[in-house]
Amino acid sequence: MYIKQNLRVTLNNRFRGFYPVVLDIESAGFNAKTDALLEIAAVTLKMNEFGWLQIDETLHFHIIPFQGSVIKAESVAFNKIDPFNPLRGAISEKNALEYIFELVKKKISIHKCKKGILVAHNANFDHNFLMAAAKRTKTKKNPFHSFTTFDTATLSGLIFGQTVLAKACKIAGIPFDTVQAHSALYDTMQTAYLFCEIVNRWKRIGGWPPNISHRKRNDEI
């Protein structure tokens, strides 16, 4: 009984062996294959001895637009990023991905997981840009699942009735500063807090570990 209960509070058991990594990308457009990736941040997660999901480590990089990339004026006006500002301290896509992939692989090993899974708000956008950059730069040993993601917009719609990040955070009791929004680091941190709250709230109301007897009763109705 002790062993069974202990397994239920490990991170690898919670998500079927997947290791969740919260990520946000700021770009110069919506086309992952042609438009420049300008900023990326990643937050790794951990689980304490009682099974509560928590923020662990953070990485954040400004990115040099790849050669031949498209930079759309309306996109950089929206996220307020000057791609050519020398004070950005930008690095190449490849270097940024190598740093992130190395950290994720380390965490996968520590938590005895089998694969990283991207967590993001409107995750399809970030996943597409991540995969396109990895392919473009030929960055090896991508630890992220090739198509599965956890989308906090969808989860927030279910739990809070809101799909906009700022509104979902507000209902969840998480501060959200619209002035800092659309910075990859800020959005990633708020998304990480939101994801942890969603997972932990489900645990608090008794949704995890699964109540087998309750499920059986529902099946009989």
From TrEMBL:
<feature type="site" description="Important for substrate binding and specificity">
    <location>
        <position position="125"/>
    </location>
</feature>
<comment type="similarity">
    <text>Belongs to the RNase T family.</text>
</comment>
<dbReference type="InterPro" id="IPR005987">
    <property type="entry name" value="RNase_T"/>
</dbReference>
<keyword id="KW-0479">Metal-binding</keyword>
<dbReference type="GO" id="GO:0005829">
    <property type="term" value="C:cytosol"/>
</dbReference>
<keyword id="KW-0819">tRNA processing</keyword>
<dbReference type="InterPro" id="IPR012337">
    <property type="entry name" value="RNaseH-like_sf"/>
</dbReference>
<keyword id="KW-0269">Exonuclease</keyword>
<dbReference type="GO" id="GO:0008408">
    <property type="term" value="F:3'-5' exonuclease activity"/>
</dbReference>
<dbReference type="InterPro" id="IPR036397">
    <property type="entry name" value="RNaseH_sf"/>
</dbReference>
<dbReference type="GO" id="GO:0003676">
    <property type="term" value="F:nucleic acid binding"/>
</dbReference>
<feature type="binding site">
    <location>
        <position position="187"/>
    </location>
    <ligand>
        <name>Mg(2+) 2</name>
    </ligand>
</feature>
<comment type="function">
    <text>Trims short 3' overhangs of a variety of RNA species, leaving a one or two nucleotide 3' overhang. Responsible for the end-turnover of tRNA: specifically removes the terminal AMP residue from uncharged tRNA (tRNA-C-C-A). Also appears to be involved in tRNA biosynthesis.</text>
</comment>
<dbReference type="Pfam" id="PF00929">
    <property type="entry name" value="RNase_T"/>
</dbReference>
<feature type="site" description="Important for substrate binding and specificity">
    <location>
        <position position="78"/>
    </location>
</feature>
<keyword id="KW-0460">Magnesium</keyword>
<feature type="domain" description="Exonuclease">
    <location>
        <begin position="19"/>
        <end position="204"/>
    </location>
</feature>
<comment type="subunit">
    <text>Homodimer.</text>
</comment>
<dbReference type="GO" id="GO:0016896">
    <property type="term" value="F:RNA exonuclease activity, producing 5'-phosphomonoesters"/>
</dbReference>
<feature type="binding site">
    <location>
        <position position="24"/>
    </location>
    <ligand>
        <name>Mg(2+) 1</name>
    </ligand>
</feature>
<feature type="binding site">
    <location>
        <position position="26"/>
    </location>
    <ligand>
        <name>Mg(2+) 2</name>
    </ligand>
</feature>
<feature type="active site" description="Proton donor/acceptor">
    <location>
        <position position="182"/>
    </location>
</feature>
<keyword id="KW-0378">Hydrolase</keyword>
<feature type="site" description="Important for substrate binding and specificity">
    <location>
        <position position="147"/>
    </location>
</feature>
<dbReference type="GO" id="GO:0000287">
    <property type="term" value="F:magnesium ion binding"/>
</dbReference>
<dbReference type="GO" id="GO:0045004">
    <property type="term" value="P:DNA replication proofreading"/>
</dbReference>
<protein>
    <recommendedName>
        <fullName>Ribonuclease T</fullName>
        <ecNumber>3.1.13.-</ecNumber>
    </recommendedName>
</protein>
<dbReference type="InterPro" id="IPR013520">
    <property type="entry name" value="Ribonucl_H"/>
</dbReference>
<feature type="binding site">
    <location>
        <position position="182"/>
    </location>
    <ligand>
        <name>Mg(2+) 2</name>
    </ligand>
</feature>
<feature type="binding site">
    <location>
        <position position="24"/>
    </location>
    <ligand>
        <name>Mg(2+) 2</name>
    </ligand>
</feature>
<keyword id="KW-0540">Nuclease</keyword>
<feature type="site" description="Important for substrate binding and specificity">
    <location>
        <position position="30"/>
    </location>
</feature>
<dbReference type="GO" id="GO:0008033">
    <property type="term" value="P:tRNA processing"/>
</dbReference>
